[in-house]
Amino acid sequence: MITKTTMAMFGIAASGLLAGCTETLDSQQIKTGGISATLEAIAESASSTTVRATLKAGGDESNTYVILSAGDRISATVDGEAVAMSAESSGVYEASVDVGAGGTEIKVLLDRDDEDDDATNNVGTLPDPFDLEALPREPVPRGEDLTIAWSPSASGDDMVIDVKGDCIFSKTFDVGGDPGTYTIGAGALEATSSREPESCDVDVVIRRSRNGTTDNNLDPESSFELSQVRGGRFTSAP
Predict the structure, then answer these.
(1) Which UniProt keywords apply (predicted)?
(2) Is the pLDDT of residue 52 over 70?
């Protein structure tokens, strides 16, 4: 079962992992058009979704995070119900809702207190949920194929698989469409040490994602991704 700890390992939940030299900027010091919003709706199950907004100044690659102040506020509307988003860290705002069904409409609304433009037209729908089939209980040698399967498939959305473990190099596999299975070929998972090959637990996170749209009043680098996310674990062996 996927957990927020596992999600954080792959950068899916990065609210507490702001790396490098970071700066903050009060929202009263920046126009809406200068705010780059990275918006995410992450459904961990068919009945649980986290809506996250990461606000930056200077583009998505910037390390300057925008802190909402005065009357500036951000919220979400999930399936027509308004939900307040609270600060999880500097420039990162979240809300959790007990909804995760496919087709659920999610909006993120940035309301400005002054005469600057609001950005309330950020909208998208969740992909359909899916179940990840059980991964092997016995250790899987890295010299053998590993097939990962999920259902239902053929959703029309893109699937991505991330793998991470202490004894292997982390990898991301772009599945290409939604075929229901993906085989990680023999040798595709590389050991971090050739001198002393080890076995270790490997976390697998699979995402079904689609893009929403962002308000034209925001920085053009803004984005909105909506995903169904599931996870499992197996043991990788030499």
Answers:
(1) Signal
(2) yes
